[in-house]
Amino acid sequence: MHELLRASAREVVGRLKAGEVSPLECLAVLRERVAAVNPKVNALVTLCFDRAEIFAKMKMEEPVYKRGLLAGLPVPIKDLTDVAGVRSTQGSRIFADNIAKSSDILVQHLENEGGVVFAMSNTPEFGAGGHTFNDVFGVTRNPWNTALSAAGSSGGAAVALATGMAWLAHGSDMGGSLRSPASFCGVVGLRPSPGRVAASVFSKIDGTLGVEGPMARDVQDLALLLDAMTGAERGDPLSLPREEYNYQTIAKLPRKPKRIAVSRNLGVTPVDPEVADIIMAAAKKFEAEGVIVEEAHPDLSEAMHCFQTLRALGFATGMRALLREHRDLLKPEVIWNIEKGLALSGEEIAVAEAERGAMFRKMHQFLSTYDVLLCPATIVPPFPIEQRYVTHCAGVEFETYVDWLLIAGVATMCACPAMSLPCGFTKTRLPVGLQVIAPNRQEPKLLGMARWMEDVLALGEITPMDPR
Prior knowledge:
Layout: H1 3-6, H2 9-17, H3 23-41, E1 44-47, H4 49-60, E2 74-78, H5 105-112, E3 116-121, E4 133-134, E5 138-139, E6 141-142, E7 145-149, H6 155-162, E8 169-173, H7 179-185, E9 188-191, E10 211-216, H8 219-229, H9 247-252, E11 259-262, H10 273-288, E12 292-295, H11 303-326, H12 332-342, H13 346-366, E13 372-376, E14 392-393, E15 396-397, H14 406-413, E16 418-425, E17 431-437, H15 443-457
Helix pairs in contact: 3-4, 6-7, 11-12, 11-13, 11-14
């Protein structure tokens, strides 16, 4: 593996700004790595190196101080987000030949900050489900064991990071879509607070379930991409202005928490016993450092009904026309989800919205007495790629394809920033992610404390790696 691929994103950006390497050299290194590794894992499904080289040359003509926070660093974009002139499929046969005419606000923002888009990362059809496969490109394989799932829906992004095909990666998250792949692949993923990262609006103008977010190999690199992603945009009415501070500075300084809560299951879902034990072992390490650790969580009994109802409503709002016009091209799980949303009554929607409000208040009150809440990022280790989704756990059978994602859906319902941080390995050497949940709009607290936890856990540089 080329030495540049093993460097952190912040180190590469530093070298770009110092003129020690150029964006074109970075692209050349990635082109070689992608050719060698991607056929084994199928993470990057559309390559646009020619477009990237044109953009990189334009950046190189600018003074270094005008090249943005990323200074010409190559970044892959998840194949749910349009990049002008690039095949953008959403993992669907409906859009298999679609070439985007314009770029999403998110992409425009990243390019303004010097991000060079060189590839689209794989995703399940329309991002639906926690396993990255679709009928256009096939399945993405977990580099820790290529017979296993990389989770989803940002599975391609996580695998690209883990295998050295990217230094940073864009992801998105509704029910753990970047946290679950981060957990399965041994990288870091952050679901920010709603509005923290601007994106184009296509259906619900005030939607706060799905958000865009950064993925990286460690917390400091994650903070770099978050800095490049943030900022208000007129095309997104919920977008927040940049804070006065920058997240990179915060992530450089580990922040030891005083009191944290830990839960094996948040009281809402079964969890594989081995996963739960790894989470509790991590909490014990924090306790040994003098942190008050208490096993506790708020009452979240509304979570399943609320999550399922509002998620289905989102599918119906955004995809009812696709069901009407292209039903034969949609996977069964997507059809079920849209139809569930269309069948909702006004009362069911009203109840779910009230449940979400109640959950938000209870989580807000709970986190006023704890710095953060810890729990598993996923309830199981990586599963075989032949499975479409997790059907059971710890003796409990699941009714739907999204039930197993509820432990991540809680932070979504409560509008909390939440991160998946590598915290240990199963007996078969598969990574497990610790979910760290902070109060709404408290990304600085989350980053500082996650950085401290990362140091205490001391897993070392577990990625990038060669697929096995």
